[in-house]
Recover the amino acids of this structure.
């Protein structure tokens, strides 16, 4: 069956996101280019899906099922829009599947970081974080993401492996036990389906960046 894709149309950037495959989202200048970028990353995403025991089809066909307007966050470089499909409840099996994919994204980042040097090549203008700062950025963002799914934020330093594992377990358990579309919270929160795509995208985006910037 085709893989459902959401198009998020910003002013300067467009995201294509595979709705049921957290972490698999790419940005480009146009919808066609974003879908092409998503398709080009099948070889990179396939091992992640296999690690989660939910492998991609042997033959991948992408189908755009919804297009929504983006925001300033989209143009900044992060997927920010929810889909109508995100308003659905989750079954136990669906929640378990999505949570397993997020765990596989974390494992991919850990493996890439372990194989990468501290100093990474810089971009055309000399920018880009080195390995430790990139990992710290991902961890800091996840502390913020916790609040967006109704959890208390927990800060963890990059060298606190035990704290990191405990925080990841808290996050993934929130997704694994999700049944309602939204967390029960008095704060403004994200729907679970969007939230897990956003968290997983950020993890894989930086894992792949780290790979690409190895000397």
């Amino acid at each position: 069956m085709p893989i459902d894709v959401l198009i998020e149309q910003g002013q300067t950037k467009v995201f294509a996101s595979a709705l049921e495959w957290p972490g698999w989202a790419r940005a480009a200048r146009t919808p066609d280019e974003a879908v092409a970028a998503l398709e080009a990353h099948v070889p990179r995403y396939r091992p992640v899906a296999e690690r989660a025991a939910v492998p991609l089809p042997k033959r991948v066909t992408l189908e755009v099922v919804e297009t929504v307007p983006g925001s300033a966050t989209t143009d900044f470089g992060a997927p920010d829009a929810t889909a109508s499909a995100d308003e659905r409840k989750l079954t136990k099996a669906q929640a378990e599947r999505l949570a397993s994919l997020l765990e596989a994204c974390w494992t991919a980042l850990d493996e890439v970081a372990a194989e990468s040097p501290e100093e990474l090549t810089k971009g055309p203008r000399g920018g880009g974080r080195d390995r430790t700062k990139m990992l710290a950025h991902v961890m800091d963002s996840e502390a913020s993401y916790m609040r967006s799914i109704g959890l208390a934020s927990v800060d963890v330093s990059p060298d606190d492996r035990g704290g990191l594992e405990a925080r990841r377990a808290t996050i993934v358990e929130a997704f694994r036990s999700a049944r309602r579309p939204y967390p029960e919270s008095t704060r403004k929160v994200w729907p679970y389906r969007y939230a897990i795509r956003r968290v997983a995208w950020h993890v894989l985006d930086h894992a792949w960046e780290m790979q690409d910037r190895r000397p």
In short: The CA atoms of residues 140 and 155 lie 7 Å apart. The first helix runs from residue 31 to 40. The chain has a mean pLDDT of 95. The chain has two domains: 3-85, 86-212.
